């Protein structure tokens, strides 16, 4: 069987995809920023007709076309659109791969007769892409290089055994060579592929490099060029269809246990752990109920996951019965093999993860927080509050020096009963309406504000901190602001155990 390859080229994929979501009348272009200057990234047909081209500076484009509409280019969205088209093109070939950032290549060997021939296959392809609003050109040839070249020069079909005649009329740049090589060939009068077909290979290789000969041989079928489609990402989902409808919670949980065992085994094969799971329950009346859970860390232990589903299953209205269940893991993360179980061997971090998962599913994972150490000597900035589910515990730095209070709060005024001696804390003072007297004092510890932060609380300058043990019991962290003027000089900011 002769090899036949289909090449599809999307000359305006980024702009066409953007206009499909939000149509615009008239000239339109996507803009990307390069070296502090905005340039045109992809244009629609109306913009091209006004004399604009890709790579032009946006300022020059507005001078030629003042009414042009622009949007920022989305490279990730463009790649996602091409990936979606690659999956869609699977209707025409069992193996489809991306060909650069704006094209596809598909192996249609032995497939064309299913569509009534190669002409009918191309016509069906073009009609469907036109209805999508995507500009495209396609070509079918016996080699990847020939199909690629023809698709980018108005498309067509090259019959078997006619590769040299089919690509001979095309410019040498169609061979996927670098622009310098194409320009060098044009300077000596070799502007078309037919001009170099009959020339000796050795002089061409010495003057223009081996890359030209390789591309020419690939287009003519003398050098192999396989089509290797990227492997599809694994789909983590299982389903179960029931012969009779069920409605009891115990029956649903029994079915969920079977689905979890299968799904977790599939996750283990790919060394993945679920971070989010969704259970879909199809009722006999056609409606679907959903129960979704999140997990504090990657997990694939069926017993622990089932416990998190129980509350949501209790709230499901089974109606006249449930006849199908579908369980998916839409969000997964890499997870190394590990020991799982629910007995005495359950590790402390597993128990903490289960607790965070239960709390997160009730109140939201962004509201379950933990303290992380921060690299700052300012008490208010010495820690961070981060979600537990999206962070790992970080051991704090080994701190040498004065201890820190167990409870830290915003500075609260302290009213001394009498002006204290210079360099000493007040002997008697009032804090939170409580009269207190100093029994022991340790300090001072001077902390200077971080000059690179404009913190209103530290605009009074440096602080001298004291550890105060009172006769009445409270052990406080007091500080003095010697540089402040017209304000209370003493504040309490923390309490020791």
Number of domains: 3
Poorly predicted parts: none
Number of E-state strands: 21
Rounded to the nearest angstrom, the radius of gyration is 35 Å
Describe the main β-sheet briefly: 7 strands, antiparallel
Beta-strand percent range: 25-35%
Describe the fold and architecture.
Helix 6 crosses helix 11, helix 10 crosses helix 11 and helix 12 packs antiparallel against helix 13. The model has no long low-confidence stretch (mean pLDDT 89). The chain has 3 domains: 138 residues, MutS, DNA mismatch repair protein, domain I; 127 residues, Dna Ligase, domain 1; 90 residues, no CATH class. It has 14 helices and 21 strands. The protein is extended, with a radius of gyration of 35 Å. It is 30% helix and 29% strand. It is of the alpha+beta class and 497 residues long. Strands 15-21-20-19-18-17-16 form a 7-stranded antiparallel beta sheet, with no helix packed on it. The protein has a 5-stranded mixed beta sheet with strand order 5-6-1-7-8.
